[in-house]
């Protein structure tokens, strides 16, 4: 059986200032009956809970079950980067899914940054949200050339909205990006955030409006079939709950509860770090968030925070060749040892003017992503399981995908909307066909993660 979250996970920077709901249980015992059970309290679970209560005078009863602490999964351990893919994968998606589908995905991703900004402003969420621009700088000559050709073709086709994308190729790239040896650079609107604070605020709002949050409560099983009254039985070590509706927000651990997602949503371990700079060393301002591309699928990505520290993830060149370090791995209590030293000196190696910055690694942690075998998230009704819905499998790229996908699921629940009326790209829909496919693009060598 597919594994569950391990105890004693590494401590990410984001979880160094804990919220009072971190290990919260709204009621001492588990309720026996609830309208809706949300499993997982990461960004997906919290956003679902938020929308179920938002502006709802007659909300259903909702319980959120979380195996560990609130926001202790991927969301609490990520790079904080909210970066829509508005150009990079678009040519590939056009070939595979057609123009409409590819353009839909790019539009949907781009709209999320503004949606998160609007949410943060509306709800006055203190989460260090910054609206900025992302810069993709490519160091590898073959990748820079291939990306150049693909982008030029995309521009010429006129199908995608590239108004917000600035592109420099060749001699100007290093100067414009500040990245040593950059052969090309793209910039476009993006954001960054303290993800834990965003999620805990959403959970707090839901709890204030009546949601029951139960942390340290692992779901061990969902009944194979519905009970005679149509409800599902959700089993935990603390008792069982009968519910009309289950929302799976379980990311890389989904297959443990829903075995049909075995080999479809695969746990993939990633590594992240925080780098600090001595206060007495002035360093060049980093105007963007960055992805530094070393080759196909090989990259580092970083954000510079308002406190002057830098959150950096990636380090793939150091460990990607050894699949046992990352593929089907759910242990985030251990670091990826070959990658740990990668962050030392990274700023000095990468950025012009940072050579004498004194930047040093402050902290390193790991986290478990849910990568899908076709790199598309699963959103919507679980095939063959009436009243079970899923929001999972963001392939290391959930921050610019989750909020509006959660809103869409709640629109389906509250207003009875059909999937196609929600604005979620059709290729994100959880379908029988996707579950039946035996293709695995992660291992097929086509992996081109987006960050
Ligand atoms: C190291 C790292 C860096 C990343 N960097 C970025 C980035 O910069 N930008 C970006 O867009 N994305 C990034 N990602 C990916 C991003 O974090 C995820 O796509 C997103 O957070 C997924 O949110 P989620 O709510 O679906 O999953 P999670 O945050 O993982 O939440 C799922 C929750 O479900 C709980 N759960 C699972 N099974 C059970 C069960 N049986 N019972 C009860 N609870 C259960 C888990 O404990 C967990 O808390 C990164 C991920 C990692 C690991």
Return the average pLDDT rounded to an integer.
Answer: 96
CATH topology of the domain at 132-189 and 267-372: D-Amino Acid Oxidase, Chain A, domain 2
| CATH homology superfamily name of the domain at 132-189 and 267-372 | D-Amino Acid Oxidase, subunit A, domain 2
Question: What's the number of helices?
Answer: 11
- Rg computed from alpha carbons, rounded to a whole number of angstroms: 21 Å
* Sheet/helix structural class: alpha/beta
Protein name: FAD dependent oxidoreductase
Domain FAD dependent oxidoreductase: 35-412
Pfam family, one: DAO
InterPro entries: FAD-dep_OxRdtase, FAD/NAD-bd_sf
Q: Can you describe what's shown?
A:
The protein has helices spanning 43-53, 90-97, 99-122, 141-157, 172-177, 195-208, 254-257, 337-340, 346-350, 402-415, 432-436, and strands at 33-39, 62-65, 81-82, 130-138, 166-169, 184-192, 212-214, 219-222, 232-236, 239-248, 265-276, 289-295, 298-304, 310-313, 360-372, 378-381, 388-392. The protein is an alpha/beta fold. It has a domain at 132-189 and 267-372: D-Amino Acid Oxidase, subunit A, domain 2 (D-Amino Acid Oxidase, Chain A, domain 2), CATH 3.30.9. The strands form two sheets. Strands 3, 4, 5, 6, 11, 12, 13, 14 and 15 form a nine-stranded mixed beta sheet that branches. Strands 1, 2, 7, 8, 9, 10, 16 and 17 form an eight-stranded mixed beta sheet that branches. The longest helix has 24 residues, at 99-122. It is globular. The model has no long low-confidence stretch (mean pLDDT 96). Bound molecules: flavin-adenine dinucleotide. Flavin-adenine dinucleotide binds at residues 4-5, 39-45, 65-68, 72-75, 77-81, 218-219, 249-251, 253, 256-257, 270-272, 313, 367-369, 392, 394, 396-400, 402, 451. Flavin-adenine dinucleotide is lined by residues 4-5, 39-45, 65-68, 72-75, 77-81, 218-219, 249-251, 253, 256-257, 270-272, 313, 367-369, 392, 394, 396-400, 402, 451. Residues 35-412 form the FAD dependent oxidoreductase domain.
């Amino acid at each position: 059986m597919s594994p569950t979250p391990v105890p004693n996970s590494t401590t990410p920077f984001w979880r160094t200032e804990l919220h009072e709901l971190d290990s919260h249980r709204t009621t001492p015992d588990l309720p026996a009956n609830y309208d809706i059970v949300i499993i997982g309290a990461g960004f997906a679970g919290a956003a679902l809970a938020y929308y179920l209560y938002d502006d709802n005078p007659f909300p259903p009863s909702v319980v959120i079950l979380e195996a560990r602490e609130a926001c202790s999964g991927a969301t609490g351990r990520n790079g904080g980067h909210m970066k829509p893919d508005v150009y990079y994968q678009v040519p590939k998606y056009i070939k595979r899914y057609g123009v409409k589908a590819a353009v839909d995905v790019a539009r949907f991703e781009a709209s999320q940054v503004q949606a998160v900004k609007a949410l943060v402003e509306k709800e006055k969420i203190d989460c260090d949200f910054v609206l900025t621009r992302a810069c993709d700088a490519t160091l590898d000559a073959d990748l820079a050339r291939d990306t150049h050709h693909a982008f030029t073709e995309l521009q010429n086709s006129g199908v995608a909205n590239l108004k917000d994308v600035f592109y420099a190729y060749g001699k100007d790239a290093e100067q414009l990006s500040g990245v040593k040896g950059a052969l090309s650079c793209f910039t476009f609107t993006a954001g960054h955030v303290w993800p834990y604070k965003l999620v805990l605020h959403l959970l707090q709002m839901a709890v204030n409006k009546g949601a029951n949050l139960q942390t340290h409560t692992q779901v061990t099983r969902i009944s194979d079939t519905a009970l005679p009254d149509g409800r599902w039985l959700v089993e935990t070590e603390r008792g069982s709950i009968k519910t009309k509706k289950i929302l799976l927000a379980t990311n890389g651990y989904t297959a443990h509860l829903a075995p049909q997602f075995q080999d479809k949503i695969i746990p993939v371990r990633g590594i992240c770090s925080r780098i600090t700079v001595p206060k007495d060393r002035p360093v060049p301002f980093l105007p963007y968030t960055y992805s530094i591309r070393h080759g196909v699928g090989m990259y580092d990505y970083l954000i510079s925070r308002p406190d002057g520290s830098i959150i950096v993830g990636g380090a793939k060149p150091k460990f990607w060749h050894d699949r046992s370090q990352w593929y089907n791995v759910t242990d985030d209590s251990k670091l990826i040892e070959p990658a740990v030293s990668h962050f030392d000196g990274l700023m000095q190696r990468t950025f012009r003017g940072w050579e004498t910055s004194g930047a040093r690694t402050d902290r390193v942690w790991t986290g478990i992503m849910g990568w899908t075998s076709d790199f598309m998230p699963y959103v919507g009704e679980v095939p063959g399981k009436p009243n079970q819905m899923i929001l999972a499998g963001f392939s290391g790229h959930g921050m610019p995908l989750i909020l509006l996908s959660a809103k869409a699921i709640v629109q389906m629940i509250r207003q009875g909307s059909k999937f196609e009326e929600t604005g979620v790209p059709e290729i994100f829909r959880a379908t029988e066909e996707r579950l039946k496919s035996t293709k695995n693009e992660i291992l097929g060598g086509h992996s081109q993660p987006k960050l």
